[in-house]
Amino acid sequence: MCNNCKSEEMVKNFKDEAIDTSLLNPVIEKYGKVKGSLINILQATQDIYGYLPLQALNYISDNTDNKKSVIYGVATFYTQFRLKPIGKYLILQCQGTACHVNGSKEVSQALCEELKILPGETTEDGMFTLEDVSCLGCCSLAPVLMINGEAYGNLTPAEAVKIIRNIRKEDLA
Amino acid sequence: MKVLVGLGSCGIAAGGRKVLESINESVAKNGLDIIVEPTGCVGMCFHEPLVDIIDGDKKYTYGHVNAEIANKIVESHLVNGKPLTEYLIYTNDEPDVFVKNQLKVALENCGQINPENINDYLEVGGYKALEKVLTSMKQEEVIEEMKISGLRGRGGAGFPTWFKWDAALKSKGTEKYVVCNADEGDPGAFMDRSVLEGDPHKLIEGMIICGFAMGSNHGVIYCRAEYPLAIKRLNIAIEQATEKNYLGENILGTGFSFDLRIKMGAGAFVCGEETALIESLEGKRGMPRLKPPFPAQSGYWRKPTNINNVETFANVSWIISHGPEKFAAIGTEKSKGTKVFALSGKIKLGGLAEVPMGMTLREVIFGIGGGIKGDKKFKAVQLGGPSGGCLPESLLDTPVTYEDLSKTGAIVGSGGMVVMDETTCIVDVTKFFLEFTCNESCGKCTYCRVGTKRMLQILEKITEGNGTMEDLDELEALALSVKDASLCGLGQTAPNPVLTSLKYFRDEYIAHIVDKKCPAKKCTALLTYNIDTEKCTGCTLCARKCPVQAIDGTVKNPHVIIQDKCIKCGNCYTACKFGAVEII
To answer: Is there a contact between A153 and A142 (Cβ–Cβ < 8 Å)?
Structure first.
């Protein structure tokens, strides 16, 4: 391992977990030989594990023509890719212009207080992950949240908190 | 009779799916033989969920429908034949202002047809333009029609579409590509989503025609992953178009072949820039290439490539079937046709409005959008997202054309129009845009990578109350340098919000710097919370809500905020039931 490029430091960006890499075989079979499909491979990998585990990236590098540095470069360039696992519910908070002028900051603050995490983090019980996104394209319903693919619009801080509490309640039931 | 339920992303977010279920149940329960179908977004997001009832020539539109109202509509309108006027927004005999002042070309079918059924598209004349092109026109003739129409790129730069097609046609080589930029990354723009979700075949038809004109047999749609519904509907549309042989080998027996696939973006604003998009298509980091060579000469896999955005392609079939002269008759001399604007922010009627180019900002914002929410005072309109600019009230009579808007320092851009009122702080909004471009800069050019960061730091300093007048000069100098020394559109336009706000709202910067006040009362560090002793009843609620014990006072006696301790969180302001906490 090279000492100058701080690869040990880089490893800290990942959450290292034992995973079943054989799940990747169909993905590599489908895209491995198609040039320019690294992004497709990473998207499919994230669909399988919910994030990009270090082991999976190493496996992709060993079984395709992509160098580790290239894979790491692409995985950290795009906001869609995550190097750490996410909670059961992924909350995307829209930080687009329309949401910004309609009070998305206040909604975000209320959610952070309720969940006791910052954007980009996951609650300790693994239930919720909070993430900022640039625009969900539902600008006339601003401010907007998207939870596991479903959009919620015209929110106030209190309503946003209520939605989270309802999800928690329904999940326990 | 036919019932349409608006199921674009916005309709779904407002509860459209439940409405559709409820109508289906109710129709079945009453034993009615009526078609109930989903449709895309008609642009009236402020009325969602929307339900249309089409009865012969007559069309009734209901707004703000929920499951319960949906039942009532079925009972009253469908069973008893009595329209439920209470929830009716308008009928096609008496359209409301939002609809009346629009002219639909690109969005003509959105909210009118079922996007998941190709037969709906065929019924309204779909793929007729393609048939005409393939059976009776030469490549050069198609390009000539585009030239006559005057269609310019709707994605931002406004480059003449025919020119790009022509350059791609003239490029040597048999392997060429048509790429659709559906990576609508501008925060505040959602017209492409509307076309993708509401009328995907229109885009596909436009792309095939382009493929024929430039001699390409392969198309790729680069669609952002944040639009899952758009991707789903595009997939369905591609499948159905292939089944009917509008896509695939030997289309309609004419010998021309064209295949189309979707490539999902992975979330990077810079990929809206065409060369960065190509890099991303090739599976790499989306970093722009040096131009020339232009994509028309050397693009995807170094082959001749033409890239247009969704709205541009959505105009193509209309131009072919209605004639380019008819298109050219809309709009102004240099900006022809219509443009879709996404109205949002502090506007009463937020949604999509397609208008002839040349309409003034005032006509769009007040005539169609209904003016400012809560009848507050208009302050600014932000055009063109993070690459655009903020324009003040004095420029509201500017016509929306490429030339007139660029004279003001803003741009048409992709068509986002975010309206701001007196409670929006311009310095804060400018900071917001810089945060965005700073995050999204790919890092290739130093001026963009470091310059946007430095500009952001200066803006942070100003909003925190530590700015100096020299900062404004530095901000301006930096902005001009970043513009000059960046390779792609992201860096070249990132300073626009800074430059326009300095030009039109300098007073507001000065208020932050000299008076240490934020006129819109947004910048926390510049606010002072105070308790009006006359209004305070001594209920102690604010003192209990204060996280840092900065409020002093006893029960039934007026309270006081200890300014040294106050962290300006605003809890007391939201907690007080008597309006005794004021912000100065």
So the answer is: yes
**Amino acid occupying residue B28:** A
Which residues 388-447 on chain B approach chain A with CB closer than 8 angstroms? 416, 418, 420, 424, 429, 432-433, 436, 440, 442
Strands ordered across the beta sheet of B51-55? B35-39, B2-6, B51-55, B58-62, B88-91
Within 109-168 of B, beta carbons closer than 8 Å to A belong to: none
B219 shares its domain with B295? yes
Check which CATH number belongs to the domain holding B457 and give it. 1.20.1440.230
pLDDT confidence bin for A8, thresholds 50/70/90? low
Residue spans of the domains in chain A: they are: 12-77, 89-172
Q: Which residues of B touch A35 (CB under 8 A)?
A: 282-283
ipTM of predicted complex: 0.89
Do the domain assignments include residue B167?
yes
3-state secondary structure of A143: coil
Distance CA A30, CA A61 (A): 15
The residue range of the domain holding B366 is: 338-415
Cβ contact B127:B109 at 8 Å:
no
| Segment B85-96, tens digit of pLDDT | 899 988 888 887
Instruction: Kindly determine whether residue A98 and residue B226, on different chains, have CB atoms separated by under 8 Å.
Output: no
Q: Is the Cβ of B46 closer than 8 Å to some Cβ of chain A? A: yes
**Domain stop point among B272, B290, B324:** B324
Residue A150 with chain B: CB contacts under 8 Å: 12-13
B356, B273: one domain: no
**Is B65 among the domain residues?**
yes
Residues B358 and B499 in one domain: no
| Pick among B98, B192, B226 to test the A interface (most A CBs inside 10 A) | B226
Structure-token pair, residue A34: 């198609």
Top CATH class of A89-172 equals alpha beta
| B98-130 tens-digit pLDDT | 888 899 999 999 999 999 999 999 999 999 999
pLDDT value at A140 more than 90: no
- Regarding whether B136 and B242 lie in a shared domain, the answer is yes
The mean per-residue pLDDT over the stretch B418-442 comes to 95
| DSSP assignment string, B341-372 | EEEEESBSS-EEEEEETT-BHHIIIIIIT-SB
Q: Which residues of B touch A98 (CB under 8 A)?
A: 187-188, 344-345, 350, 418
Which residue in B46, B228, B266 is closest to A39 by CB distance? B266
pLDDT tens for each residue of B360-408? 999 999 999 999 999 999 999 999 889 999 999 999 999 999 999 999 9
